[in-house]
From TrEMBL:
<dbReference type="InterPro" id="IPR016047">
    <property type="entry name" value="M23ase_b-sheet_dom"/>
</dbReference>
<dbReference type="InterPro" id="IPR050570">
    <property type="entry name" value="Cell_wall_metabolism_enzyme"/>
</dbReference>
<keyword id="KW-0732">Signal</keyword>
<dbReference type="InterPro" id="IPR011055">
    <property type="entry name" value="Dup_hybrid_motif"/>
</dbReference>
<feature type="signal peptide">
    <location>
        <begin position="1"/>
        <end position="19"/>
    </location>
</feature>
<feature type="domain" description="M23ase beta-sheet core">
    <location>
        <begin position="77"/>
        <end position="180"/>
    </location>
</feature>
<dbReference type="Pfam" id="PF01551">
    <property type="entry name" value="Peptidase_M23"/>
</dbReference>
<protein>
    <submittedName>
        <fullName>M23 family peptidase</fullName>
    </submittedName>
</protein>
<dbReference type="GO" id="GO:0004222">
    <property type="term" value="F:metalloendopeptidase activity"/>
</dbReference>
Amino acid sequence: MRHGWLAALAMTSAAPTAAEVPFLALPLDCTLGETCFIEDYVDADPTFAQHDYTCGLKSRDGHQGTDIALLSQNEIDRGVTVRAAAAGTVQAVRDGVADEPYTAEVAARIKGQECGNAVRIAHGNGYQTLYCHLKRGSLSVTRGERVEAGAPLGQVGMSGQSNFAHLHFTLLRDAETIDPFNAGASQTCGADSGSLWLETPDYARAGLFTAGFSTSVPRLTHVQSGAARRETARPDHDIVLYGFAFHSEDGDQMAFSASGPEGEIFSQTQTIEDGMAQLFRASGRRAPDGGWPAGGYTGHVTLLRDGVILARRHATIRVE
């Protein structure tokens, strides 16, 4: 996704002083694999397909950054600090975009502001970093301000084109996206051309395509097509949460949790005995006597390997 506001902002603010290629620290106050994880990488495929820098599946068509996701939207209220990945000069800021799920109605309202509340920093030699989807009212820097690596910029939110709590982080040079995991390659995957991270985050090719609620244990074909997903249920329906994974390995685990208007309704962890290219697992509960209370229900599916979080997806359903 190209953030249209980037080109529209003035490029004439205070000149940066650094001249070298920036090496990047993790731009978020979290621990990868414990309190956050990388959801998507830069798309290295110039076609309508998508591949991350390893030629894996962890990207989206046209995605121009690294998405570092929190474990739930509740973390937005707690406050997770976004930090400058390298020293530089604040070149542009925007605040005032609401933190809300991205819908067609929201899209029309924020056209040109898909990056949401954001900060852009210039690092010299044409390099810039861009920090998107920050929480409204959390920005702590101003245009023209000099910042050091690790300086707080704001907090993670869900503003702009976002449906989950995450930071969209982009490295640019002369307005062109650079993948910090594969800095010397342009729209090419599989070539190890060098990392720009001070400590390069570990990569695992396994992940989750999706998670969803259904009212019975679905078939794989229905999970793959999306036909299994239910947005509403009756009080007498069973509630089933499923996760659809890719490239799982023997011994990986899939954890399920779901809660409703009266709190948690189930929690279960399943071990994957035989990993494979695609598989799904499900967990759930039969309707209680008298039926489920009306209202919204939220589920989380987490894929883990040796206790490390590889991926996490959420789903919602409403009992009516």
